[in-house]
Amino acid sequence: MNNRLDTDMNIVKSVIVCLGASVVLAACSAGGNNQGTEYAPNMYHSVAYEPYSQITDPGAGRWLTSIEYEDGHAEFFNSNTLNVSTMGVFMNMRTPPANTVPRNKNGWLPYRIPKDSLELAAKRLKNPVDSSAQVIAQGKVLYQTYCQHCHGAKGEGDGKVSEKYAGVANLKGDAYKNITEGHIFHVITNGKGLMWAHGSQMSAEERWMIAKYVKVLQK
Description:
Elements: H1 2-28, H2 118-124, H3 133-146, H4 148-151, H5 181-190, H6 204-217
Helix pairs in contact: 2-5, 3-6, 5-6
């Protein structure tokens, strides 16, 4: 009895081993679009969807499909008939509203006055930050961080850098004491002469705070 039981168990084990070997061999017979037998293929075969187009072929990616979708489509199918652009093209993303541009956290539009239009910036730009003590204090800290090494603590062009490079602007001089905050903001953003642009180092709000503080120094 025991011998027969052992024989049956050996047969079962042999069948299991054969089935396992068959699965392994089948998985190794990959080629072209056939990747063989895979476990959870959806987890490591990502589909790069284009934002302005959709995959409208319901049979696309049939070889990868491992889920029974209600409408029978294959894995790569990605179409939403309710999301159609004005040109009649299916899209993955929503159509952006007309005449809109991104704004920052304060609702400000991107600064796009050209670098060589300093006079225009000086006339048209108005400082959107207030003149509160807190803003002035923040402007002072920013000035000390980004400006003082050139323009000096009092804005007189006597910072450490001026000892090596001549021509640092004296912000209290007659040529600068009447410049507008828009002028200052534009120069900080785009640079001028020997001064490099700082627009990538500070937010627009921080640049406006410095402009506000510079006008305090000039009084």
